[in-house]
Amino acid sequence: QVQLVESGGGLVQAGGSLRLSCVASGNFFDMGWYRQAPGKQRDFVARATTVNSTQYADSVKGRFAISRDNAKNTVYLQMNSLKAEDTGVYFCHARRAAGSRDYWGQGTLVTVSS
User: Fold this and answer.
1) Which of 12, 28, 55, 84 could form a disulfide with 94, with the two C-beta atoms 3.0–4.6 Å apart?
2) 99 Cβ neighbours under 8 A, 6+ residues apart
3) CA dist., res. 112 & res. 52, Å (int)
4) Of 74, 78, 70, nearest to 51 (Cα)?
5) Distance of alpha carbon 50 from alpha carbon 48, whole angstroms
């Protein structure tokens, strides 16, 4: 059974930083993060592949950085210069190949106070 376990969420003041981690129960080509603000849809934040290709949502470029430790099946999201609009539940996402099944973690709450 595939498991994605997130950690690192919490309450932080605007301008602060947090680092999220997601440990997978296996190896995935594509791992990343989505977030869901209260009352809104789940949106893409960032992704990274095992060949170090990365993508970011425009809203987080220059502030967030995604990285992977493939030996540990772990993906990280370093979030700097946090804004109130970054508040939401952050979900770890993984898939073994492009177009394959999506796997999701249970989510970790990030709250940015203004």
Assistant:
1) 28
2) none
3) 29
4) 70
5) 7
- The DSSP code for 79 is E
Query: Could you tell me the two tokens for 63?
Result: 């502030």
pLDDT in tens, 49-77: 988 899 999 999 999 999 999 999 999 99
Distances (CA, A) of 107 to 15, 42, 52, 74, 92: 22, 11, 24, 15, 7
Dump pLDDT digits (tens) for 71-107: 999 999 999 999 999 999 999 999 998 889 999 999 9
The b-or-e profile of 5-42 (16+ CB within 10 A means b, else e) is ebebbeebeeeeebebbbbbeeebebbbbbbeeeeeeb
